[in-house]
Amino acid sequence: MQTAALIVAAGHGTRLGGELPKQYLHLDGQPVLRRTVSAFLAHPRIDLVQVVIGAGQRDLYDQALLGLDLLPPVVGGETRQQSVAAGLTALASAAPRHVLIHDAARALVDDALISRVCDALESSPAVLPALPVVDSLSRVDGNQVTGTQDREHLVRAQTPQGFDFAAITDAHGKAIGQTFSDDVAVARAAGMVVQVVPGAEDNFKITVADDLKRAESLLRQKDQASVETRTGSGFDVHRFASDRELVLCGLTIPHVQGLAGHSDADVALHAITDAVLGAMAEGDIGDHFPPEDDRWKGVSSDIFLRYAISLLRLRSGRVINIDLTIICEAPKIKPHRQAMRENVAAILGVPAHRISIKATTTERLGFTGRREGIAAQAIATIELPREPDTFVAA
Fold first, then answer.
1. What is the reported pLDDT for 328?
2. Residue 384 burial by Cβ neighbours in a 10 Å radius (0-12, 13-18, 19+)
3. Which fold would CATH assign to domain 3-223?
4. Is the N end or the C end of the chain the one with fewer CB atoms within 10 Å?
């Protein structure tokens, strides 16, 4: 085992707004933590990735990193220093030669920076990526300037900070009971020599709302040439059945009849699932969940949609928009529409503003007009990494 990446994601801070810690907020369609972890998983010189999470965050972690090949997460401590120590302990059985310790909130770390740290570790026991201080520095007391600070020997420290694994593990053991600003400080206190390599301006730490907006802008600029937009459509029909509850968009809707089907017959989620699968050219629900298979008898249809989304995430794709139309004479959809939007958004792991739900009738024409059942039509717009086209001669 050569090099492990230790991603520190144990923070509980919500300075960006909302109830979620910042590492689980979405950054241009993917959780911040997923983008960070994916950067290390994709690097050819990183052999395994260990994530340290906060207490009570396992469900958030599982949803954010669904489908990625990772070691089981370890729960961190009260401080970052304690969390790193917990992560190093978890990696001990793998006994890597080197470890790169990285902040989960630095989601724009790139291959070149990771490579620079790995290169420097071949000749140094500790490595700090850093940027020069280009602005003038002033000392202040309250709102008064009290002096200036020489910037000649100052740098802006970043992560990933790289270390000889055995040496930094020993250094953290010696640091118990003391408080240090970062792992380089822990290393220096133990007598380790730290080499500096160039950092990257885009490798900033997402802390406040403006940081998230800046990161999204940078990602979109980079992604324009590397992603493609695809559209898929889905259509489904189920007849009414008097002995079942009516389930639409994962919610039980009060009505005199439900829908007949092998699963819970959620015609809306079936249409959305087929639309997502279609956009990926992955067939339809029946290909993945055959109706003759008793395992799917009576199951909740969110299982099908979550599966389709897991396929999309495995291909590093994201949902841009879902547009669903429910076709029926009854029940009335409008009173339930917002709850439906929110539930579909939760299943997909996207904001509700990316989900459109409409309802219409067929003016009493056809089977829906005769109140024999409900139909649903969905359009899914997704993004996927661009793949080169190959053509086979006829």
1. 96
2. middle
3. Spore Coat Polysaccharide Biosynthesis Protein SpsA; Chain A (3.90.550)
4. C
SS3 252: strand
What tokens appear for 176 in the block? 């118990």
| Residue 198 Cα distances to 130, 207, 208, angstroms | 5, 22, 25
pLDDT of residue 376: 97
CA-to-CA distance for 107 and 39, rounded, in angstroms?
8
C-alpha distances in Å from residue 54, one per residue of 8, 76, 78, 82, 341: 9, 6, 9, 11, 30
| 196: enclosing H helix or E strand | strand 194-198
Pairing mode of beta strands 161-164, 98-103: antiparallel
Q: To 5 degrees, how large is the angle CA 197–CA 25–CA 66?
A: 90
How do residues 256-284 score in pLDDT, each as one tens digit? 999 999 999 999 999 999 999 999 999 99
Q: CB under 8 Å to 184, separation ≥6 — which residues?
A: 126, 128, 157, 161, 194
Superfamily for domain range 228-385: 2-C-methyl-D-erythritol 2,4-cyclodiphosphate synthase (3.30.1330.50)
Written as six digits, the tokens of 101 are 């310790």
User: Where do the structural domains in the chain lie, given as residue ranges?
Assistant: 3-223, 228-385
**CA-to-CA distance for 38 and 193, rounded, in angstroms?**
30
Structure tokens of 358?
């409409």
Residue 9, H or E segment: strand 3-9
264 by Cβ neighbours in 10 Å (0-12 / 13-18 / 19+) ranks as buried
pLDDT at 268: 97
Residues of the chain with pLDDT under 50: none
Which letter does DSSP use for residue 22 in this model?
Answer: G
In terms of pTM, does the model score above 0.85? no
pLDDT of amino acid 12 = 81
